[in-house]
Amino acid sequence: MLDRRISIAPMMDWTDRHDRYFLRQITKKAVLYTEMVTTGAILFGEAQRYLQFRSDEHPVAVQLGGGNPKELARSAVICEDYGYDEINLNVGCPSDRVQSGKIGACLMAEPELVAECIGVMSAAVNIPVTIKHRTGIDDEDSYESLANFVKTVAEVGCQTFIIHARQAILSGLSPKQNREIPPLCYPKVYQIKQEFPNLEVIINGGVKTLQEAEAHLQHVDGVMIGREAYHNPFILAEVDSKFYGESSEPFSRLQVARALLPYIEQELATGTRLQHIARHILGLFHGQPRGKLWRRYLSENAHKENAGCEVIEQALKLVEGAAI
């Protein structure tokens, strides 16, 4: 069973394989998640493009988007064959672009269908199948509705529930607004753990510090960190020692950046553009002296034709002696 005390949320356009490799230089233990990958992309698109990852990324989970049980089961088998440690079903995305395909938070209105999806996926693979969802949708945001949803899905054997502690408003709010406007309600998630003590309950939403994560762990089994881990990734530097008891030599942001250089060289040699990697490391020196110089230099130069490791090295010169 994966140790999900700390995990990094699946985030569209952000947690691709380059970002995951970068984060793995900071924490070896936190569970990483892919962006949501739809069943259509796997079964009828370019599965290799969306599912490839390096062995260095373990423990790593793939998040699937879909609402057709048969297609989800087939996709789950493919994901297992790729070597993922876990398959997670997205029942939290509020985007109207995915609702028409019965993907994301709209599925909370159909707990029996979600249970069927989880059940057939679990039967098709030998790795954990988990779920990520909201506390509710639209007017269905009572604790009773949430508890009924969890109970229905748990009855088919789902053991791990990752709960974004906000309701989703399916019409009238953009995905960005849905991450900010509906208020956080952590007590609902705590109550789910109390009512279903045998389930693994992971809380998500609004976590900005490891101190906050520690406080949540007094009530639930794990904490999933989202946007803060992307914009300020070095907050993860103490995860392995603080939550997993790992002893290791302290390391700096400069060391993390330099550790990426061989990876960047390898990727450039296969045709990857520097900008596709560099965009993920803009926040490495967040809050540090000269950190804005690092961000600006990469933003202005990484996209240029034939940009290579020299761009990273030059940006490092701007922060050397000031950052830690």
UniProtKB/TrEMBL annotation:
One Pfam family this sequence matches: Dus
Keyword Oxidoreductase: yes
Reaction catalysis annotation: 5,6-dihydrouridine(20) in tRNA + NADP(+) = uridine(20) in tRNA + NADPH + H(+); 5,6-dihydrouridine(20a) in tRNA + NADP(+) = uridine(20a) in tRNA + NADPH + H(+); 5,6-dihydrouridine(20) in tRNA + NAD(+) = uridine(20) in tRNA + NADH + H(+); 5,6-dihydrouridine(20a) in tRNA + NAD(+) = uridine(20a) in tRNA + NADH + H(+)
Active site annotation, chain numbering: 93 (proton donor)
EC number: 1.3.1.91
Gene3D superfamilies assigned to the protein according to its UniProt record, in alphabetical order: 1.20.120.1460, Aldolase class I
Binding locations of FMN: 10-12, 63, 132, 164, 204-206, 226-227
Cofactor(s) it depends on: FMN
Stored InterPro entries: Aldolase_TIM (IPR013785), DUS-like_FMN-bd (IPR035587), DUS_fam (IPR001269), DusA (IPR004653), tRNA_hU_synthase_CS (IPR018517)
DUS-like FMN-binding domain residues: 8-316
UniProt keyword annotation of Iron-sulfur present: no
Sites marked Interacts with tRNA: 90, 176, 179, 295
Alphabetized UniProt keyword annotations: Flavoprotein, FMN, NADP, Nucleotide-binding, Oxidoreductase, RNA-binding, tRNA processing, tRNA-binding
Gene Ontology MF terms: flavin adenine dinucleotide binding; FMN binding; tRNA binding; tRNA-dihydrouridine20 synthase activity; tRNA-dihydrouridine20a synthase activity
Family membership: Belongs to the Dus family. DusA subfamily.
NCBIfam families: PRK11815.1, yjbN
Role of this protein: Catalyzes the synthesis of 5,6-dihydrouridine (D), a modified base found in the D-loop of most tRNAs, via the reduction of the C5-C6 double bond in target uridines. Specifically modifies U20 and U20a in tRNAs.
Annotated protein name in UniProt: tRNA-dihydrouridine(20/20a) synthase
Organism: Aliikangiella coralliicola
